[in-house]
Amino acid sequence: MMRSYLDVRPHCTVCREDLRQTEGNDVPIFLTIILVALIMVPLSHVILAKLRPDPLILLTGFAVGCAALGLYLLPRLKGVILAYHWAKD
Asked: What is the pTM of this model?
């Protein structure tokens, strides 16, 4: 279904169904932001309360973790939204 990181193929490679009408718009981005925040904020709070790391180390780890989790989740959530959109049509 996906041609590259976030591009949707114009046709399905198996059944040749037209996929140009399916659009995810901004929903996957919003879901990614919400999920990353719901995972990383409590995790950073627990790490700060239990381990008491240097603030610069915590900030670096939080930034890298947020970026990695966001890059991992975004194409998967876009696929979920496109599949839901396709199923409802």
From this structure: 0.85
